[in-house]
Amino acid sequence: MAEEQKQTYEILSETYEQEMLAKKKAGKKGGRLERPPKLTITSLMDILTILLVFLLKSYSTDPVAVTPSADLDLVKSKTMLQPEQTVTITVSKSAILVDNAMALAVKDGKVDGSQKRGGEDGYFIIPLNKMLADGMEKQRRIAAVNPSAGKTLGVATIIMDGDTPFRLLTEVMYTAGQAEFNKFKFLTISSPEG
Amino acid sequence: MARKRKELEPDTDVNLIPAMNLILILIPLLITAMETLKLAVINVATPQIGPSSEVTPPDQAPDEKPLKLTIALTDRGFHLYARDQVIENKDDPLGPTIPKKDGEEVVDGKPVPGKVYDYDRLSQMLSDIKDENPVEENIIITAESHIKYRYIIQVMDASREKKEGDKKKTLFPNVVLSAGVA
User: A75: which of A63, A116, B78, B153 fits an S-S bond (Cβ 3.0–4.6 Å)?
Assistant: First the structure.
């Protein structure tokens, strides 16, 4: 059985050599063979499959997605606490957003006095409060049917540009407080070295 | 016999090329979707407009004045308050408790020489206060209205824990932000 196989291969390789020789003589360089040599890709498949499983395992969907931009320069911090799925308030150099929906514009780290209750010196940002109150209402409705979502009721994640003045931060937090948000999470880039 | 084997031979190999194609598409897709920035959060309590009297730990003796440790950030440095008293700077009684030090500040990615906040000294001072008040975990942070958010985060970092060799000492992890100083 093994001998027969060996013989078959010998015959085949002889034919192959003869063919090549004939082609060389005829002046055809690297001509196509009838039977192209086979490439073993099984080992490559093994590597790729392992890589794929590893990548799928390490791939995780973060509850908070941040698109880096020149407008939103996130701050580094040594904290290691994981973000959670909550209402997000994004304060960039040019706008304030609630859950990625535009609430109002910001100019030079300030909100226009006409948008605030009490004018320039006010803390209560009217359009932001309205959107946050809607967000709170949505959270409540979800919590009513899904008790596990109730854990983050009244929690807001603040994503803020590093150059934002403290005054705007307090205004945003005060306004959120008026919409019944009482716990805040400041989103930062985790950097254990600082 | 030999002829039969020869005829069957092409069927023994599984065509892996479609599977390879799929995997080769999936791998770059997953690599690009992978998180390159690791995000984390800092828990902060609601700012209190007016005196923040609720931050007293419940296990404190009622006759003892609450610590009410407060850091106020100003342009000149950190002003520290404990039990409603200013923690004085012995070298400059009228100045901030921890004045800014000479150093380099990064502006638009370039280091610029100037005055910077002394976080190491702040951490050391808070560590000493923690030794005197081991049960206290709250800290009130406040700032002048124009102080940038990044400095507040750095103060939170400095007041949360301190590295002592290989160990980390927890200082005051419960942050309460208070409305700005005028």
Answer: B153
